[in-house]
């Protein structure tokens, strides 16, 4: 009789009140209604686009999304003669502006319409950041010094080194090359712009397609430094992983 009564009480308690597992389930559902601020790297790749679409649809349908366009360093191959460098620059500007317009329209359809301008700052700020870049550039004594470069206490020297080799298309680095100065300046501008953005929008998650070179690596290291959760979406055949 007592056992029957006990079982009845337990039955009704389970029906009317939350147990431990139900509390976890309840909190998980409730957390979906708390809007997170999430940044997606808007890389021009269909695989990445579809992966982010799946992520948003299944996990973050009502969040605040920001996008980050990574193409801020343009190829400057060593074989292009100096008198053709202006033509090369114009070609890059036209090409990448059109690519940007096309791909940001794709990401806008996913709800990613607010784009972080990581290479756009006002004239006054740019003047002081160029002075900072020149100070770093002029104090380089050898190639190893490049690897030691830090911006706001974040190590970025290896990213700068790799970016130079990749976009200059050379086997080694020239510490006197103006293109190296340009990359250092871009790295400083990126860090400054990201910091300015983060102060207004303390994001919680960053999704990226790569973590190499300054355009991919600096946002990764910046957000990690701010204790933001960073996920790199690895592209593998027959295996989709994050």
How much beta, percentage-wise?
5-15%
* Major sheet: arrangement of strands: 3-2-1-6-7
Rg from alpha-carbon coordinates: 24 Å
Give the SSE string: HHEHEHEHHEEHHEHEEE
> Based on CA inertia axes, which overall geometry fits?
elongated
- Show unreliable segments: none
Profile the largest sheet: 5 strands, parallel
Helix content: 55-70%
**Which structural class should the secondary elements be placed in?**
alpha/beta
Give the overall pLDDT as a whole number: 87
Number of strands: 9
End-to-end span in angstroms? Answer: 55 Å
Give the quaternary arrangement of the chains.
single chain
Number of helices: 9
Task: List strands and helices in order, with pairings.
Elements (H helix, E strand, L loop, with lengths): L1 H15 L3 H12 L5 E5 L4 H14 L4 E5 L16 H24 L5 E3 L6 H16 L4 H5 L2 E2 L2 E2 L1 H12 L9 H23 L4 E4 L4 H13 L3 E4 L1 E3 L2 E3 L1
Parallel strand pairs: 1-2, 1-6, 2-3, 6-7
Antiparallel strand pairs: 4-5, 8-9
Helix pairs in contact: 5-8, 7-8, 7-9, 8-9
């Amino acid at each position: 009789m007592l056992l029957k009564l006990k079982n009845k009480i337990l039955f009704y308690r389970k029906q009317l009140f939350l147990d431990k597992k139900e509390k976890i389930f309840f909190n998980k559902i409730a957390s979906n209604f708390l809007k997170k601020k999430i940044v997606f790297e808007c890389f021009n790749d269909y695989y990445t686009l579809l992966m982010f679409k799946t992520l948003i649809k299944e996990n973050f349908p009502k969040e605040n999304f920001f996008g980050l366009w990574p193409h801020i360093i343009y190829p400057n191959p060593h074989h292009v003669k100096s008198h053709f460098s202006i033509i090369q620059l114009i070609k890059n500007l036209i090409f990448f502006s059109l690519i940007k317009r096309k791909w940001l329209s794709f990401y806008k359809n996913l709800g990613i319409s607010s784009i972080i301008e990581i290479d756009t700052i006002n004239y006054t700020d740019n003047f002081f950041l160029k002075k900072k870049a020149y100070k770093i550039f002029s104090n380089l004594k050898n190639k190893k010094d490049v690897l030691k470069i830090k911006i706001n206490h974040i190590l970025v020297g290896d990213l700068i080194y790799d970016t130079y080799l990749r976009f200059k298309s050379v086997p080694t680095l020239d510490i006197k090359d103006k293109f190296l100065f340009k990359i250092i300046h871009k790295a400083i501008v990126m860090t400054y712009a990201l910091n300015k953005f983060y102060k207004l929008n303390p994001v919680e998650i960053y999704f990226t397609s790569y973590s190499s070179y300054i355009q991919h690596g600096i946002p990764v290291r910046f957000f990690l430094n701010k204790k933001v959760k960073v996920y790199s979406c690895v592209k593998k055949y027959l295996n989709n992983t994050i």
